[in-house]
Amino acid sequence: MIFNKRKIEKLSDSELAKHYRKTKNIKFFGHIFSRYAHLVYGVCLKYLKNTTDAEDAMMQIFEKSIIDFKNNEITYPKSWLYSVSKNFCLMQLRKKAIPLDSINEIDNYENETNQIEEKVLNEKKIEQLKQSISELKEDQKIGITLFYLEKKSYQEIANETGWELKKIKSEIQNGKRNLRLKVKEKE
Hints:
Layout: H1 5-10, H2 13-23, H3 26-48, H4 51-71, H5 77-96, H6 103-134, H7 138-149, H8 154-161, H9 165-186
């Protein structure tokens, strides 16, 4: 299969990773890395406090990541690159023996890391939920969307759709049940 730049840009991270492992063609990994280069650079700059050191670290992380990414099954490249970047920078600081200002700063780094990882997982769950909603029957999709996402009352839904209250309750209840099953299938 021939890939041009426009076609590669449309591939998801997991598709790019699959093609990279299959073909060993660096352009696939390079595209993943370029999507998150700003994140890698930001982490490096935050820890190393110097643009030159941050740029050097970013290049070293790229070189290291090419090999690690090829040899490991990476599910979430964004969070993986964040962790690799953070760990690389912390190792650089240890090598230079630059003391961290205080225990509070270390705690802040830990909290930020946890928040970013949690945010990435939440984004993934939201994507799965949106995908699962789109797979529901049309009336269930409408009921779930209007009630839960648009926060409309049963009466507002009835006015908008022309449905009776029993139908609204039924579609929402069935939609919830089916949505729960679809989400569990994807976990």
